[in-house]
Amino acid sequence: xxxxxxxxxxxxxxxxxxxxxxxxxxxxxxxxxxxxxxxxxxxxxxxxxxxxxxxxxxxxxxxxxxxxxxxxxxxxxxxxxxxxxxxxxxxxxxxxxxxxxxxxxxxxxxxxxxxxxxxxxxxxxxxxxxxxxxxxxxxxxxxxxxxxxxxxxxxxxxxxxxxxxxxxxxxxxxxxxxxxxxxxxxxxxxxxxxxxxxxxxxxxxxxxxxxxxxxxxxxxxxxxxxxxxxxxxxxxxxxxxxxxxxxxxxxxxxxxxxxxxxxxxxxxxxxxxxxxxxxxxxxxxxxxxxxxxxxxxxxxxxxxxxxxxxxxxxxxxxxxxxxxxxxxxxxxxxxxxxxxxxxxxxxxxxxxxxxxxxxxxxxx
Length: 364
Ligand SMILES: *Cc1c(COP(=O)(O)O)cnc(C)c1O
Known about the structure:
- The chain is an alpha/beta fold.
- It is built from twelve helices and twelve strands.
- The protein is globular and about 65 Å long.
- The site of pyridoxal-5'-phosphate has 15 residues, from helix 3 and helix 4.
């Protein structure tokens, strides 16, 4: 599903130079590399500020805490996401509430979210699932009208833009992950918070560093969620490649959308706009998903399931409040979704092989 060893040698050389630079500097935590990466990531994401943190989970927790969202406050989100989305809410001390998804896109349903709003609701944590950013005008007015904070989970949507605005800037804050498999990945864990408010950025920077304002002064209880200099340097080396890599993901997705033809397979919605999808994952739906996956494997094609278990079926999450009408679309999506290989190192022969394997599948 990913092949980092097939990355260009030039990129490998850039990464080696980045490591040497950090080792030669003798400075390993919160230094020049982190500062430079924050500046470049903010520009690349069309945000005023980026605050680098240790991972995407922490970015969510810190975004919520910096907004003053915590115990007693409800945050509406989706059960069709990485577990970290909901864990970030719980770790901030707030209460997750689960709304259903749209059957066609797998994204949070606005109508379902509306049924979940209570007097305790403080925010919507919107996940740009699989790299798609959609209908942001509707989400902005939904949150504005109800005086809720809009927080974006941008772990899968690096560089995605919708009507001229970058993911992470539609609401109060965006949370990014640089886990190795994300579109921009470190060689380990990493994350960042995006926002356009200087005070929020300053509070997030304190929270990631023990709640420290100036050395040895702690106006609030923070955490240790610092990004290492070496990971920041590696991210700086990888960032110039992200545009080319994203273009390749788009090209692969275009091939799949144009050439996969199988009545047993439902293709994902095409992107709403040219830049509104960065194809972190290419996810199809099939009623006999498991036999399709076995068939692909026989034809030498890897696939994965994002996600096989919706959050409300996870053991610690069974009592989480959800849409009173249930979460049927999420359950159906979890039962039928399958992610095909969609990464920048796929060549045209690989892509043709995936298409051929999907097209020759016959449900048993
Ligand atoms: C990866 C991911 C996260 C968590 O990021 P980590 O860096 O692994 O903590 C959160 N939300 C979504 C949607 C993700 O894909």
